[in-house]
Design goal:
alpha+beta; Glucose Permease (Domain IIA); 4 helices; 11 strands; 41% helix
């Protein structure tokens, strides 16, 4: 009987500790979200003050915002160096496989290349980065653009069943979607130069 009472007491103690840990994790997540919201508000207010201070600033702001591609990965790296992870790492999906794109044929196409692959092939990300575009691109069909950690914009065209969302940070070899048929359009742009797939992966 004494042993049973000790077991019950130990169980209750462990349960209290577990509940306390859960509350701490929830509190930490809440603090991170509040910090992110406050930083967003501060950035927004600083932008408004900058624009309102002179017409020249307004023109510079418009020119940069509408003509330049925002370097999301650089901003993310600076943020993480100063404040830590943007999103705390919890239960993350593991990749089923990793490796290079498997294709039967590759040829030049518009600004990139056209790869002949198996019908409905899974398409995985070539490098970790941020999803900056999902939608139709003329000549490429439904396209996902990922801005890589190395500064390269990688376009994956002719994609169905897209598995990522806009502004998701995705690791290398994350499944993006699958090809609509047996064609994958691939465009790799870095420092305003278009690269071939074989050059980029080496």
């Amino acid at each position: 009987m004494i042993i049973m009472d000790e077991l019950v007491l130990n169980f209750k103690k462990k349960r209290r500790n577990y509940n306390g840990t859960k509350k701490t994790i929830k509190k930490n997540k809440k603090n991170i979200y509040i910090t992110q919201i406050l930083l967003g508000i501060i950035l927004f207010l600083v932008s408004i003050i900058y624009i309102k201070s002179s017409d020249k600033n307004l023109l510079l702001y418009k020119e940069y915002v509408f003509t330049e591609s925002l370097p999301f990965t650089k901003i993310k790296n600076i943020y993480e160096n100063m404040f830590g992870e943007v999103i705390p790492k919890g239960n993350q999906d593991k990749t089923v496989f990793s490796g290079s794109l498997v294709y039967k044929n590759i040829e030049d196409y518009l600004d990139g290349e056209k790869l002949t692959v198996s019908p409905n092939s899974l398409v995985t990300n070539l490098n970790g980065g941020i999803v900056v575009y999902i939608g139709e691109k003329e000549g490429y069909g439904n396209t996902v653009i990922v801005q890589g950690n190395d500064g390269a914009d990688i376009w994956y065209g002719n994609i169905a069943n897209v598995n990522v969302k806009l502004y998701d940070y995705i690791e290398k070899d994350t499944t993006i979607g699958e090809t609509i048929d047996d064609i994958l359009y691939l465009v790799i742009k870095k420092n305003n130069e278009y690269l071939k797939y074989e050059e980029y992966k080496n």
